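During the reporting period the student researcher (J.K.) took over the structure-prediction task from the postdoctoral fellow and processed the backlog of single-chain submissions. One of the processed entries is reproduced below for the supervisory committee.
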Amino acid sequence: MLKKLARTLGLATLLLSATSQALPIVQADAFVAGDNKATLETSTGLVWMDFGVNSHLSYDHVLYLLPTEFAGWRLPTAAEVDNLWTSLFGSLPEWNRFSPDFGYMSSQAQDDYFNSVFTVFGNNPDAYFESRDADGNIIDAWTSKSLFGVFKNESGVSGFVSAESPYDDIHSSTAMYIELAGTDVSGWFGTLLVKDSVATVPEPSPAFLLLLAIAALAVRNRRVH
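J.K. obtained the following structure tokens:
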């Protein structure tokens, strides 16, 4: 009996540990059922258009399409973008909030986490980086998976968020949140859009999964006897 109880608690602990590391976002639908082109932020219920969906369009073009192709979507506030990015990266030990309008991290240990974000949130086209010496010669170059989204609200606060994860094991993954009050970012691609509701069932909580695992094992043990 004690051995069975130990196995039950061990499995439940393992399950709870796995689910407690879940992202604060889950996949959702943007335009039609099953398209998985949006992301639900579980703490707020806000639905964000996946990165890459409008990254081929300018900011002004996205605004032009809001009443038609992107009907039901809106521009987020800076506070909403801040909350999203902080929920995604703020718990990582490498994240630094240098000021209320600037946060940044660089890490060579979080590639798996970054890739899990990309899996749910989509991505923009790959980003290419290079560094040069004093004579202008390229001394290093690499390509990364890329998230890049701009925001701009009616109060004049604009800015962008980004996340990059290199395809190699040499360069660091980075994430950034920055506000640029009064700065025009409308020429950049990847406009953040959000809506306030979604017809998506959120993922079950870790506590619920823990109870479900214990109940399933109890039923199995009862059948054995």
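The committee noted the following: The chain has a mean pLDDT of 82.
J.K. will present the remaining backlog at the next meeting.
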